[in-house]
Give the backbone structure.
Amino acid sequence: MDTLQARQDSVLRHPGYLNFAASRVFSSLSFQCVAIAMGWMIYDQTHSAFALALVGLCQFLPMVLLTFVVGHVADRFDRRRIGLACQLIQAVVSALLAVGCWQNWLAPAGILSAVTILGATVAFERPTMAALLPSIMPSSMLQRAIATSTSMMQTALIVGPSLGGLLYGIDPVAPFVVASVLFAIASINVISIRMEWTPAKREPVTLTSIFAGVSFIKSRPVMLGTISLDLFAVLLGGATALLPMFARDILHAGPWGLGLLRAAPAIGALGMSIVLARRPLTSKVGAKMLSAVAVFGVATVVFALSTNIALSIAALLVVGASDTVSVVVRSSLVQLLTPDEMRGRVNAVNSLFIGTSNQLGEFESGMLAGIMGPVAAGVIGGVGTIVVVLLWARLFPDLRKVKTLQG
């Protein structure tokens, strides 16, 4: 009976969800292929931590500049068509990178320009696709849909870096060609999504409506605390930008080893997302999330101090698993507590927080590594994450009291 009920409730059987999931997975897989190739290429050309920092900055700046534009666009136009446009642009940029690499005229400036364009498209795509999900699924299935989507995305994050590293090792042109094709497949799926219902008529554009997403989050301390905790924790503890340095200079691994390091957090995240899908967080959600972020900080310190690739991979597995707890809590709160007519703006602000913690965190880590070295940068970031957890437990006391994902 339980198996039958599980099949009946399966999100994979819901019309439109498979196309939605396929679009997100193929897009993420493509981006990971491109990202690992660009990261290795620019470090190979420059041998500079500051160049790696600029990669993170070029992804982050478009997100900051476009946040409020993205929110209104996502709330006023067909979200499927926005996703289609983004993925087609990404396909074209990947193809141009392939040509530039093939013809040997792809310099650091060209790589950074491509990163900026991809950052702009991601700034539109991610919050738009996140806002699209509740229009596909009924609210009763939304939490399960988020968990399932998270596990699929983490699978893409596992395969993507490994595939990108493997393809780059065979031929530097290969990851860009494959990414271009996969972006095109993603675009076909996004335009094929079936909607559960037609969104309500949107409100006119005013100064108040532009900043409505910020006001909405600010008025809900639990949501603000959850989102900002993730921002500052990953801002300090993120070591993604330093992986090429650790792989090459400390662990003495090539592109294949870098691919494994990039995949490790996703493997840990996949495992945790499967656990959360089977055993949802139903009690003491806030306390468990704070504990998970603290574990994230400890694992970051272990990774920074490791000189053994096996230990480094193990630490990154824990990093990914602990971070997933925060991801599921944050995503569920944002989707379940936000009305559809505001989801674009709220998800745009949420995406800015995520982008800040990732891209700006990469810039901060790269700059600090350039001054103090990657090991010191990683240790300082991990310790800083633990300090943030302790501060947030006091600044947002209601966060510790959250019992369920409905806040």
User: Anything to note?
Assistant: Confidence is low (pLDDT under 50) at residues 1-8. Residues 139-170 form the longest helix (32 residues). The CA atoms of residues 48 and 126 lie 30 Å apart.
